[in-house]
Amino acid sequence: RRLVVLVSGSGTNLQALIDASTDPSYGARVVAVGADRDGIEGLARAERHGLPAFAHRLRDAPTREAWDAGLADAVAAHEPDLVVLAGFMKLVGPAFLARFPGAVVNTHPALCPSFPGTTGPADALAYGVKVTGATLFVVDDGVDTGPIVAQAVVPVEDDDDVASLHERIKVAERAMLVDAVGRLAREGYTITDRKVRIGA
Ligand code: GRF
Fold first, then answer.
1. What confidence tens digit (pLDDT) does each residue in 141-191 have?
2. Is 56 among the residues known to form the active site?
3. Probe ligand 1: pick from 3, 6, 8, 13, max atoms within 8 Å of CB?
4. Which of the residues 49, 56, 78, 108 is marked catalytic?
5. Bridge partners for 2 per DSSP
6. Given 3-state DSSP classes, what are the helix, strand and coil percentages for the chain, each rounded to the nearest 5?
7. Which end of the chain is more exposed for a tag (fewer CB within 10 A), N or C?
8. CA dist., res. 16 & res. 30, Å (int)
9. Would you tell me how many other CB atoms lie within 10 Å of the CB of residue 89?
10. Could you tell me the pTM of the whole model?
11. DSSP 24
């Protein structure tokens, strides 16, 4: 199965998928990497592994809709079976999702439905939860509201700051992402009433 991964930053989740791809029994391999900006480590990782990589910046498009359509074209060019948003910091629009129906997944550094949006770890810390974690879900037209594929739980420590908490989340998130994406790719999945069932 062909994975196209979209990133906006360091790309450690991407790296975990690239590393998993080296195992032929994993059942999926990263075939291309896209970003919404240039000059990020995520794109450098792609280049280091000889993977096609592209930056598709908002300012390169006349409107948000045109950007969304252009992103879909750039991703579709690599014929993905699954599009993985891994630290991608833009909302993809309905036109993008329509190009890859049920095949866009996103990893979020909180236990959905708690703490959606771009500051999940900070919000969890501020709220005072004792556990948080990461969620892989199939993207729908909401913000971090899609049907859940997998979750991983980590403790919040009394002396945590946002950085230490997010780092702990990311360790669990990478393992959860690699495992779940591999299962989706190898076994297929169906979604009924928001329940994602993996395997025939
Ligand atoms: C991940 O925790 C992701 O869930 C969040 O930002 C982080 C990206 O990390 N949106 P990386 O770029 O994969 O290292």
1. 999 999 999 999 999 999 999 999 999 999 999 999 999 999 999 999 999
2. no
3. 13
4. 108
5. 29
6. 40, 25, 35
7. C
8. 10
9. 13
10. 0.97
11. G
